[in-house]
Amino acid sequence: MVINIEEILRRNIIKNRKFGNGEGLVPPEGAAIDIRLGEIWEMVQDSEAFLGKTTRKTKEYKKVAEFIPGQSDWYTLEPNKYYQFKSVEEIDTPDDLVGRFVARYNLLANGIMVLAYKVDPGYKGPMVVPIINLSGSRFKIELGARWGQFEFH
Questions:
Q1: In terms of pLDDT, which residue wins out, 140 or 25?
Q2: What distance in Å separates the CA atoms of residue 50 and residue 52, rounded to the nearest whole number?
Q3: For the CA atoms of 49, 52, 56, 61, what is the dihedral angle to 10 degrees?
Q4: Can you give the pTM of this predicted structure?
Q5: CA-closest candidate to residue 25, choices 77, 75, 69
Q6: Is residue 17's pLDDT more than 70?
Q7: pLDDT tens digits, residue range 47-79?
């Protein structure tokens, strides 16, 4: 069962969220809460990565943009580049719920593939989601923009 927004707010699941502060936030409604873009990290292409039976190594990333409240900064996603978006908000997932991240339609409709996933019970921290620009052209995004939503089950 999906919990409603009143329950999400009552349980204080989403942190670092101030409504009505002029940063593009809107009061939440329904069963999901918006997540804003806090940082953009670009994959270092020639870094090593592997996945073994008992060990693994993730590619390196470099931070290329960061949201600063009160500023209007934009970043351009280059075609066929792999990024990670990190949320402004932090999630404090209760032990009895699983979070599901859903990308905003505008990103998907413009060829920006959002490789979202679930958040396990007990997870605390920001949401970091892999992003690939598959559009074949450059795409501008404003830091602090609402780029996805969380729902909890």
A1: 140
A2: 6
A3: 20
A4: 0.88
A5: 69
A6: no
A7: 999 999 999 999 999 999 999 988 899 999 999
**Residue 108: what pLDDT?**
95
Strand partners, 130: 84
pLDDT of residue 20: 45
**114 touches 108 (CB < 8 A):** yes
Give bridge partners of residue 151 from the DSSP assignment.
100
Rounded to whole angstroms, the Cα distance separating 6 from 4 reads 6
Query: What DSSP element (H or E) covers 103?
Result: strand 99-103
Mean residue pLDDT across the chain: 89
Tokens of 91: 């999630």
User: CA nearest 65: which of 56, 77, 54?
Assistant: 77
> CA–CA separation, 22 vs 62, rounded Å?
29
Calculate ∠ Cα 86-142-104, nearest 5°: 65
Tokens representing residue 85 in the block: 């978006």
DSSP letter (8 states) at residue 127:
E
Token reading at 104 = 């905003």
The answer to whether residue 23 scores a pLDDT higher than 90 is: no
CB 80: neighbour CB atoms within 10 A? 10
